[in-house]
Write a structure and sequence with these properties.
The structure is a homodimer of 162-residue chains. Chain A has 162 residues and is α+β, with helices and mostly antiparallel strands. The first copy, chain A, has one domain: Arc Repressor Mutant, subunit A (Orthogonal Bundle). The first copy, chain A, has a 3-stranded mixed sheet. Chain A has a two-stranded antiparallel ribbon with strand order 1-2. In chain A, a hairpin with a 4-residue loop joins β1 and β2. In chain A, α1 packs antiparallel against α2 and α3 crosses α4. The longest helix of chain A is centred in the N-terminal third of the chain and has 22 residues. At the A-B interface, β3, α5 and β5 of A face β3, α5 and β5 of B. The structure holds a DNA duplex (30 and 30 nucleotides).
DNA sequence: AGGTAATTGTTATATTATTACATCAGAACT
DNA sequence: AGTTCTGATGTAATAATATAACAATTACCT
């Protein structure tokens, strides 16, 4: 493990490694199934995102990618991010201009994001009650949903009880 | 009415004028009550935002403000926006990097935003069921909420039935 | 191998936002 | 009236985020 130096709430490096490699192999299979290409660059960017449980900024990713891809430029990163978002492999966190790995790639992709102001980790939750209330509300308004960004900022349970 | 040239769904210019002036006078009273200063610049920026029912971008506001304030610079706009957001007089739409007038200044400020991809108008809704589901979900997660951004993109009823 | 579409390289630039420091205007005090 | 304090604004520079346009390369299909 190289750049994974942030503190996080996960009990051990080992667990986090497992969690990253699970995410990566899932991503790989999904791309295979879908007949889309998880190229080296895309894989590297996805890995860099997963190595943090925090949301990561595009230019931060660029800095981390450069040792692996000397030619990397902003477009390199943004293209990889576009692809990963399209495939539902990461979330864009609108209120942070940042990106976070998505645990739910094959299921329903749009989830509630709980974003901790202290540890900066992002917890994604399917929150079915919220989603169905949202559907009801939209239906009442006659609004046809294309996409959702539901981002809650606050303090997570780990930081509160510390 | 000067720069209000966009099409919108509101039945007449007159109604929209009323709706703008109501928002402005409400804003004025709120600032008085709170002992904060709705200065000329702040008032002008708020007016410019209200003259559109669409979310407006910061540099667009800057362009529209300059005829009124020759010295206006980015900082001028961003400072006014910061103030208006703090006072709950506008919303920042995170997923658009844009700003929209807030109809609910004295009530609960954080609302659901329904953002139409076609007409670009933003509808704010208190959506109590969504909010309470959100509270439940946060409670379950042990998460303490500071702020919320709930932004739904899609097609509004007016654009759908046209 | 040749043709095609997708991906990446490369440069430039657009868009969004902040920082830092100077100046100014008004309220509160003496 | 002058002094001081505070908040607001002026001003310049720059940081941070994102896209566009076009060339070169690679992957895939037959």
């Amino acid at each position: 493990m190289t750049s994974q130096t942030e503190l996080n709430h996960y009990s051990s490096e080992h667990n986090h490694n497992q969690c990253v490699s699970l995410a990566l192999s899932t991503a790989q299979s999904l791309c295979n199934e879908r007949g889309v290409l998880l190229t080296t660059i895309r894989y590297q960017v996805l890995t860099l995102i997963w190595e943090s449980h925090k949301a990561v900024k595009a230019y931060e990713l660029l800095d981390r990618l450069r040792p692996l891809q000397a030619a990397a430029k902003p477009a390199t990163i943004y293209r990889a991010l576009d692809f990963l978002i399209e495939q539902g492999l990461i979330h864009r966190v609108e209120s942070l201009n940042a990106f976070v790995g998505c645990r739910c790639s094959d299921q329903q992709h749009e989830q509630l994001l709980l974003i901790c102001k202290l540890c900066e980790q992002v917890d994604e939750r399917p929150a079915p009650e919220v989603m169905s209330a949202l559907l009801d509300e939209s239906k009442q308004a006659g609004f046809m949903i294309h996409s959702k960004a539901i981002e809650i900022h606050g303090i997570c349970i780990h930081c509160r009880t510390k």
